[in-house]
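yo

u said u wanted the structure for the complex thing, so here. seqs first:
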Amino acid sequence: MTSVGIVYHSGFGHTAALARAVAEGVVTVPGTSARMVFAEDAAGDPHQLDGYDALVLGCPTYMAGPSAGFKEFMDATSGIWLKQGWKDKLAAGFTNSGGYSGDKLNTLVQLMLFAMQHGMVWVGLGLPDGGSTSASAGLNRLGSYAGAMAKSDVDLGMDGTPESDVATAEALGRRVALAALRWRVSERVEK
Ligand SMILES: Cc1cc2nc3c(=O)[nH]c(=O)nc-3n(C[C@H](O)[C@H](O)[C@H](O)COP(=O)(O)O)c2cc1C
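structre next:
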């Protein structure tokens, strides 16, 4: 069984909904399991993530970067970083914010560099820019490549995240699950 851990933070629930979509995308791939882990719980025991083939990292963009709750998790992994314990594990990321840009790219870059520091292998979104079509219902309507982005209209409460962004998060989950399957095969060849 290939396993994908989804480590996420969410202050108000919008990013949690995306994390659920990522999990739904993961389990569309036969033989693959998904588990959601809240970042603050993962911060208390980051070694609980050691056994996953891939980690999908997700948080809202707060003040132009990862939310403090997610940063707490990042900092808590420094002991694992020291031993490069997650080297060659796959990683990917997603973020959500109130603005169309809102500086979400900076959050994805920070998630990606975090993964690079750990020696992990980053999986991008792999979807063309869906924003140039007239329909905002297209996948990747925000035109992101490093990971999945979502814009939540905060004045609409929990209905504020468009279905297209939720579907984009689901597509990321499926892509990571497929990549993890291939990665396991190559690991077997190396051993
Ligand atoms: C402390 C704080 C800082 C924020 N900073 C930004 C920001 O830099 N850019 C942006 O577009 N939205 C920003 N927002 C809006 C959130 O990203 C948005 O409400 C998001 O949907 C929250 O996700 P959550 O429900 O998972 O917490 C901020 C919200 C808060 C509470």
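Residues 10-15, 60-64, 96-99, 102-103, 152, 154 surround flavin mononucleotide (CB under 6 Å). The chain has one domain: 2-190.
cya
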